Amino acid sequence: MVKEFLIVNDFSPYKNSTYFPFSKHLFPVCKEADQKNILYLFHSLHPFYSNCSQYTMKYRYINTEYLDSVSGGDDSIMLEIINMFREQAVEMHNEMKMLLAEKNYVNLGLLAHKAKSSVAIMGMTDLAGMLKTFELQAKEGKEPGQYESWVNRFGNDTAEAMKELDDLVKLKSGT
Amino acid sequence: MISVERRDKIDIVSFTTDKINALITDEIKEGIGQVFQNGNTKIIINLRNVRYIDSSGFGCLLSLMKTARNNFCTLKFASPEPAVMEVLKTLNLHTVFDIYDDLDECVRSLR
After folding, report:
1. Complex ipTM
2. Could you report the per-residue pLDDT of A10-52, keeping only the tens digit for each?
3. Chain A CB within 8 Å of residue B96 CB
4. What residue spans of chain A are helical by DSSP H?
5. Residue to test with chain A: of B19, B55, B76, most A Cβ within 10 A
6. pTM, to two decimals
7. Between A21, A41, A46, which is nearest B90 by CB?
């Protein structure tokens, strides 16, 4: 069985009675992405699991509902926003690393301000909050010892978000 | 692949194929999606004569259930063949789907 399904079973208070044994044994030709999507659908419809965010929160970093509202439900606009984010995030992370190495904290703060809006569009509110702190501190040159971990977190979270966005794009395009 | 019959303001969707697999799920989603778009709120998927449903077929049925809930529609399933019912139970989908052995009974439950 696929590990994920066993984990779900272990979490279930009903054990063995309500979990979803949607395994490769039953469906050997099912793609992993489809399995994840089907599992997500099952959990979001099930009377017990639908109230448990750990089962229905398919994405940890991005907020698809927010993305939907920003794009007005138009998939082509959403794809455009996602592509812009991809380009910006990589560029910004490289620039952050460069400014940090140069100890150019004022510009680092200004860049954190710019990055804050980009991640907010993806619904990444936690990261946006961190960037707000980063912006304020860097503009004042306060707590410089923290900057490296903030830059690393920006790089890590946006990279994880991009993986989730790849998955979302696949789902939207039906591939 | 599907036919839609209207009875007592209930849309009954039946299949003209005995397999629901990856080859026809898009067509099914599109056809039944049209029924949702028409503003119909009571829909029955009649599984009579469907003898095989693969993973994408179950994914399709779950997706339709989700769409139904999002559109405030009631979606029920009727007359599954024994082999299909067995898989539905194995997958615990009977805890998510409202399934009736008999179509008329299913229709009565929606009146």
Report:
1. 0.78
2. 343 434 445 666 766 677 777 766 777 787 788 778 777 666 5
3. yes
4. 3-11, 32-45, 53-56, 64-71, 75-101, 105-121, 125-140, 144-173
5. B55
6. 0.55
7. A21
